[in-house]
């Protein structure tokens, strides 16, 4: 066993009565927790510490950096974990427990049902530290789909003190009494800096287009690239974004000239995460990227990659010549979902709910702004009949002692 690595990062000076650890173990978790960290910082009522860990702590660390929220703590593992969930979970459990003993936080916040979230919630419960479960309302009624996230989500649901949901009723197991709808905090991330991608995401969110995101780096994936023009010809509502090493290949030239295709050699991580979340399907020869996609709500196709059959798995490894057939099948069954418009306050609602849990505010939900026409009418604007009635009452009681102050 290698020597234990200390956590990376310099902790801010303790200047709040309450602190919350935002623990992320994957890029999808970072995409939901980074806006929350910003909201805590802006409100300045509770100290929030972002923790990057998981099977690839430095990858999570870089994701926090890409979204403009540097990780306060990067929890490195003592040795490379195995691939089986039990090996990953055992190592994460030990490291997270050590962190909780060192920092003794007021609460721990986790997102979804990943292995890091499950281990953090379990250890926090053992240490009698309250658990806040973000996006607890995103659920299925199948214990094995997605696997093992849905089972982990239900376990966390038994341990959490506060449940923050996207809204609406959750399927599967009950999520507890303290369930507060906050919306999807993913919407609070910055919009793509590239205006082409920003407009594309808006079209997809409005239900006008379906996005097929294609990331290819290996030469043996050229067959996929060659099949994309035909996909555009067959599917009139599909738009394609191609990135990676093969974007510079000559086979990508026809796509670069198509009005429903975008070709880019590289994509900033922040924009890539946003495009994956908006996509109807991701096609890639990068196993790590494909693994992240279901956490962002997107089915993924791994081109010519290793595939270990798992119940309810939303990741498929397909031989290059058959990828387009699989993509068309996904497009055929994927409904056009029109997203609810975001008000940009999802992360602010999270901060408000946690502040309520700590007794810092009387309400767990944000107060709705009072519009001018909703304000009570001033007394001077009373109708003449009411005014006359008030004058009569005043005459009748003029000789009586007053019991109220003017």
Plain-language structure description:
The structure is a single chain. The strands form two sheets. A seven-stranded parallel beta sheet has the order 3-2-1-4-5-6-7, with helices on both faces. A six-stranded parallel beta sheet has the order 10-9-8-11-12-13, with helices on both faces. The chain is of the alpha/beta class and 406 residues long. The chain has helices at residues 27-43, 57-66, 85-103, 115-126, 149-159, 195-205, 222-234, 253-256, 269-278, 287-292, 323-333, 346-357, 384-396, and strands spanning 19-24, 47-52, 73-74, 107-111, 131-134, 162-165, 179-181, 210-215, 238-243, 261-264, 281-284, 300-303, 315-318. It is built from 13 helices and 13 strands. Strand 11 (281-284), helix 10 (287-292) and strand 12 form a beta-alpha-beta unit.
Concise structural overview:
By secondary structure, the chain is of the alpha/beta class. Helix content is 37%, strand content 14%. A 7-stranded parallel beta sheet has the order 3-2-1-4-5-6-7, with helices on both faces. Strands 10-9-8-11-12-13 form a 6-stranded parallel beta sheet, sandwiched between helices.
């Amino acid at each position: 066993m290698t020597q234990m690595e200390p956590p990376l990062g310099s902790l801010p000076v303790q200047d709040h009565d309450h602190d919350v650890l935002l623990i992320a173990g994957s890029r999808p978790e970072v995409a939901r927790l980074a806006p929350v960290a910003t909201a805590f910082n802006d409100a300045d009522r509770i100290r929030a510490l972002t923790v990057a860990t998981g099977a690839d702590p430095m990858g999570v660390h870089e994701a926090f950096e890409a979204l403009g929220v540097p990780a306060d703590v990067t929890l490195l593992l003592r040795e490379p974990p195995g691939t089986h969930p039990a090996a990953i979970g055992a190592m994460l459990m030990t490291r997270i427990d050590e962190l909780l003993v060192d920092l003794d936080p007021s609460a721990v916040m986790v997102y979804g049902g990943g292995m890091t979230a499950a281990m953090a919630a379990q250890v926090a419960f053992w240490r009698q530290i309250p658990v806040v479960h973000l996006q607890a309302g995103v659920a299925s009624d199948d214990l094995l789909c997605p696997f093992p996230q849905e089972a982990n989500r239900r376990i966390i649901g038994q341990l959490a003190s506060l449940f923050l949901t996207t809204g609406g009723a959750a399927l599967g197991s009950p999520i507890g009494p303290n369930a507060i709808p906050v919306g999807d905090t993913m919407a609070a991330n910055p919009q793509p800096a590239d205006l082409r991608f920003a407009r594309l995401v808006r079209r997809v969110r409005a239900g006008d287009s379906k996005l097929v995101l294609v990331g290819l780096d290996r030469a043996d994936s050229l067959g996929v690239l060659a099949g994309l023009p035909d996909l555009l010809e067959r599917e009139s509502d599909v738009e394609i974004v191609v990135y990676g090493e093969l974007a510079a290949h000559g086979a990508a030239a026809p796509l670069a000239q198509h009005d429903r295709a975008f070709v880019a050699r590289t994509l900033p991580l922040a924009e890539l995460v946003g495009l994956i979340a908006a996509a109807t399907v991701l096609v890639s020869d990068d196993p790590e990227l494909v693994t992240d996609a279901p956490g962002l709500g997107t089915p993924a196709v791994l081109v010519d990659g290793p595939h270990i059959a798992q119940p309810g798995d939303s990741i498929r490894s397909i031989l290059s010549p058959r990828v387009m057939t699989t993509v068309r099948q996904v497009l055929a069954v994927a409904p056009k979902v029109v997203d609810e418009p975001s008000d940009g306050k999802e992360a602010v609602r999270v901060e408000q709910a946690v502040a309520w849990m700590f007794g810092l505010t009387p309400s767990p939900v944000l107060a709705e702004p009072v519009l001018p026409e909703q304000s009570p009418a001033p007394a001077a604007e009373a109708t003449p009949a009411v005014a006359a009635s008030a004058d009569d009452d005043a005459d009748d009681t003029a000789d009586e002692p007053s019991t109220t102050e003017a």
